[in-house]
Write a structure and sequence with these properties.
This protein has 103 residues and is mainly α. The protein has helices at residues 2-19, 21-25, 36-39, 65-68, 77-90. The longest helix is centred in the first third of the chain and has 18 residues, at 2-19.
Length: 103
Amino acid sequence: MKTIFLIPLLLGVGAFGQCCQSTIAAAPTITWPDHSLRAESHGLAPEHDLRGIGGVEIAHGERPAWEVLSLAAETPLGDVARDYRREHAAAKKAFIVWKQVGN
């Protein structure tokens, strides 16, 4: 029974491949761009400042960051774990009753 359906299917696929081969084979041609100027050797560009300003800037009287910025208050990992454990113990638990059905 399977072969009755399989044979026409295979013949149909083969016939489609032969009749429509010209449209499938008409693939577009690919042309690669030519970057011939990039491959030539030439001198390096002159130096320029990335910040857009010229010269050297020197500032006097700056304070170090450790004097200005305050340290972030970090909670020790042990305290965080204890807080999570207390929250877990205080959380509402599901109430499950197991009933054994006859053996």
